[in-house]
């Protein structure tokens, strides 16, 4: 099943477009995030210039773009370097100076010959009692007036690419648009008054007023829906294929689980129990499980994972849990070892630290099945690691990788069930786009006995008083985190900020202060973390390396400096490091003067709620989708035409539409099905296409 022939013009290289030469090709590819004609077409205008305004000079207002017919009267070349060339022109009602900097005298004369009539278009400015236009955007002959008096789309640009170049390439790209079969449901399309695909693309690049730039314009909505439908359909096909691969039904008596639960000093919360029931239902069916468990920091996901593992171990298979970092892997070892020992289960821990003979011995235990549970980093994905029979893989902090890696993992062993856990609460729309190939469970209750965290906003001028308060708490046995901000793209500056704060606190508290930062070797970092966990260090100064998963129940104070620089999700993750013990915990958000509106909103949200799901929705509203999961490393789809904050309702519709499509025509063989294959190719949903081929 190869790409439909009619899509060929859209998949030609960008370099085939007018004005895109060898020099500009790489710049264009960076700008439109791709190297094909279709990537150029998906680069939306962000504004427009209306050149239809054509007043007489006497009526031309200051600061407005105008297109004016003038007769050239005289040239005043630049008297010396650094001064402009002036060309004076008139339309009979007034005069205007046309200004050029660094212009060649002959060039200016050729563009605007004395005595000739020309059309000029650009911004009119009133300067020192005279009217002027600096570097007109366009100069043309009277007969070119209609071509100049247009509406011109304005695009986001990158260094080395001008709007003129993009416009020229876009005209070329629009000339290649093929007629494609309609993949939308006819009734839905009519109801929304959406144009055909080729018409929508043309309208997108020809905005004639403000409404054309709105995400709710019918053409923009149509194109956004196409992109979201391709995303949802692709995920549904991948999921369908995964489910159809032979899974295994794990029928266990629950005896091992009971042994673990009897060691706990508390009962599972209702949300934990509900999530476990959903997992058990999946695991007892003969299909592969692919389930995401979302639970706020400290909601008790780990014990749920341990209980799920018992289903496969009781049936004689193995289970593995993988974490994104060594620190987290070792922390899992700490919490799991207690439970696994109680149930009499053998386990090994495998991280980058295990070398040579020790590593070989661990790999042998995994391969022979001697190790019933394997705890490790994401390095457990590597081909060199063989399991005897991996029944369940638990992945912690899923947002570090996407659909590709999930597929790679589930192919590790025949019929491996996959359980994914994240402490990053994800808004519903993002769950649908990033994890649409999975079932989702939410642990939305805190375990009993957890006290709310007292969150306070503090201007940086009051830091000294706060340090006095912390000193009093430390004398009573408390411990504190002190987080210094990440400076955009500069580890060196981060480090300077963290070291400066460390020095100040060290003067006051001496050896009770420790420092961890990204530049340290893993072992060095771990030693300081261990020392903090033991209570030898009372104040841990850190850049955001402590964000995920570190558990020190005695730490009850979190200070975040320059809190306005952090995203909401990150602030929430950091705050979740405290409030894990029985003492009252505090979080101080220290901010600088002159906060912008968004920063104020963020800090206010943090003060008002601890609910990660409310915070995640607010974060999406303030920052947009890609930011929340950190697009670059998340496997999170990046949309070019859809905007999840504006098109959330379209996403839900696309998901419902997809369910109907799959129910009626899962192999996409009908007339609409064949058109939908074209849609999948258009948005390069290759995984789904591969699944269709395989199926």
Main attributes of the structure:
695 residues, alpha/beta, 18% strand, 22 strands
Task: Please tell me about this protein's structure.
The chain has 695 residues and is an alpha/beta fold. It has 25 helices and 22 strands. The strands form 4 sheets. Strands 6-7-4-3-2-5-8 form a 7-stranded mixed sheet. Strands 12-13-11-14-15-10-16 form a 7-stranded parallel sheet, sandwiched between helices.
Describe the SSE topology.
Layout: H1 25-32, H2 37-41, E1 45-50, E2 65-76, E3 85-90, E4 95-100, H3 105-111, E5 117-123, E6 125-127, E7 130-134, E8 138-140, H4 145-148, E9 151-155, H5 163-174, H6 186-191, H7 197-204, H8 218-244, H9 255-261, H10 270-284, E10 290-295, H11 301-313, E11 318-323, H12 326-343, E12 347-350, H13 356-368, E13 373-377, E14 390-396, H14 403-410, E15 417-422, H15 428-434, E16 439-443, E17 453-459, H16 463-475, E18 479-483, H17 491-509, E19 513-516, H18 522-534, E20 539-542, E21 555-560, H19 568-575, E22 585-591, H20 597-608, H21 612-623, H22 625-629, H23 644-665, H24 671-682, H25 686-694
Parallel strand pairs: 4-7, 10-15, 10-16, 11-13, 11-14, 12-13, 14-15, 17-22, 18-20, 18-21, 19-20, 21-22
Antiparallel strand pairs: 1-9, 2-3, 2-5, 3-4, 5-8, 6-7
Helix pairs in contact: 7-8, 8-23, 8-25, 9-11, 9-12, 10-11, 15-23, 20-21
Structural class: alpha/beta
| Poorly predicted spans | 625-635
Count the beta strands: 22
Q: What's the Cα radius of gyration?
A: 31 Å
The span between the termini is 12 Å
What's a concise summary of this model?
This protein has 695 residues and is an alpha/beta fold. The chain has 25 helices and 22 strands. Mean pLDDT is 86; it is low at 625-635.
């Amino acid at each position: 099943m190869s790409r439909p022939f009619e899509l060929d013009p859209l998949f030609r290289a960008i370099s085939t477009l007018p004005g895109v030469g060898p020099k500009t090709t790489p710049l264009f590819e960076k700008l439109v995030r791709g190297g094909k004609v279709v990537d150029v077409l998906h680069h939306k205008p962000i504004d427009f210039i209306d050149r239809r305004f054509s007043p007489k000079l006497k009526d031309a207002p200051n600061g407005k773009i105008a297109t004016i017919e003038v007769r050239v009267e005289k040239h005043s070349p630049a008297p010396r370097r650094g001064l402009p060339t002036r060309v004076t022109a008139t339309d009979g009602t007034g005069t205007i100076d046309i200004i050029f900097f660094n212009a060649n005298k002959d060039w200016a004369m050729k563009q605007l010959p004395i005595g000739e009539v020309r059309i000029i278009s650009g911004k009119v400015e009133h300067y020192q009692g005279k009217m002027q236009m600096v570097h007109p955007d366009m100069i043309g002959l009277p007969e070119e007036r209609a071509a100049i008096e247009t509406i011109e789309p304005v695009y986001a640009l990158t260094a080395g690419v001008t709007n003129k170049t993009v416009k020229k390439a876009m005209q070329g790209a629009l000339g290649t648009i093929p007629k494609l079969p309609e993949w939308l449901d006819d009734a839905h399309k009519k109801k929304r008054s959406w144009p055909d695909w080729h018409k929508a693309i043309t309208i997108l690049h020809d905005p004639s007023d403000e409404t054309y730039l709105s995400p709710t314009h019918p053409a923009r909505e149509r194109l956004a829906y196409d992109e979201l439908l391709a995303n949802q359909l692709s995920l549904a096909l991948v999921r369908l294929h995964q489910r159809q691969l032979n899974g295994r039904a794990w029928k266990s008596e629950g005896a091992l689980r009971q042994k673990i639960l009897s060691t706990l000093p508390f009962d599972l919360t209702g949300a934990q129990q509900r999530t476990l029931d959903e997992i058990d239902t999946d695991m007892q069916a003969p299909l592969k499980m692919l389930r995401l468990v979302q639970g706020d920091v400290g909601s008790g996901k780990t014990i749920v994972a341990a209980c799920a593992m018992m289903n496969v171990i009781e049936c004689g298979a193995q289970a593995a849990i993988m974490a994104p970092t060594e620190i987290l892997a070792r922390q899992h070892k700490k919490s799991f070892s207690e439970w696994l020992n109680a149930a009499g289960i053998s386990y090994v821990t495998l991280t980058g630290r295990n070398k040579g003979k020790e590593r070989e011995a661990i790999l042998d235990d995994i391969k022979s099945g001697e190790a019933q549970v394997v705890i490790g980093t994401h390095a457990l994905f590597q081909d060199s690691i063989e399991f005897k029979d991996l029944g369940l893989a638990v992945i912690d902090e899923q947002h570090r990788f996407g659909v590709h890696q999930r597929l790679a993992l589930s192919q590790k062993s025949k019929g491996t069930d996959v359980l994914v856990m994240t402490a990053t609460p994800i808004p519903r729309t993002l769950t649908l786009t990033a994890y649409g190939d999975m079932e989702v469970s939410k642990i939305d209750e805190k375990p009993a006995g957890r006290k709310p965290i007292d969150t306070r906003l503090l201007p940086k001028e009051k830091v000294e008083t706060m340090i006095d308060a912390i000193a009093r708490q430390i004398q009573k046995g408390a411990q504190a985190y002190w987080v210094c901000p990440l400076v955009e793209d500069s580890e060196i500056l981060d480090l300077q900020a963290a070291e400066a704060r460390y020095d100040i606190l060290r003067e006051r508290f001496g050896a009770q202060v420790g420092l961890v930062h990204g530049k340290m070797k893993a072992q060095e970092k771990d030693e300081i973390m261990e020392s903090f966990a033991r209570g030898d260090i009372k104040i841990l100064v850190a850049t955001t390396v402590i964000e995920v998963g570190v558990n020190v129940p005695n730490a009850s104070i979190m200070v975040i400096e320059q809190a306005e620089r952090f995203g909401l999700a990150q602030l929430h993750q950091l705050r979740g490091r405290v409030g894990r013990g029985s003492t009252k915990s505090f979080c101080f958000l220290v901010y600088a003067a002159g906060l912008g509106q968004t920063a104020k909103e963020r800090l206010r949200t943090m003060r008002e709620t601890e609910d990660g799901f409310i915070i995640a929705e607010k974060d999406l509203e303030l920052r947009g989708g890609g930011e929340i999961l950190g697009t670059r490393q998340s496997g999170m789809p990046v949309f070019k035409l859809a905007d999840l904050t504006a098109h959330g309702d379209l996403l839900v519709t696309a998901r419902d539409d997809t369910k109907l499509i799959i129910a009626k025509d899962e192999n996409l063989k009908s007339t609409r099905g064949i058109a939908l294959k074209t849609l999948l190719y258009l948005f390069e949903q290759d995984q789904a296409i591969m699944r269709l081929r395989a199926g």
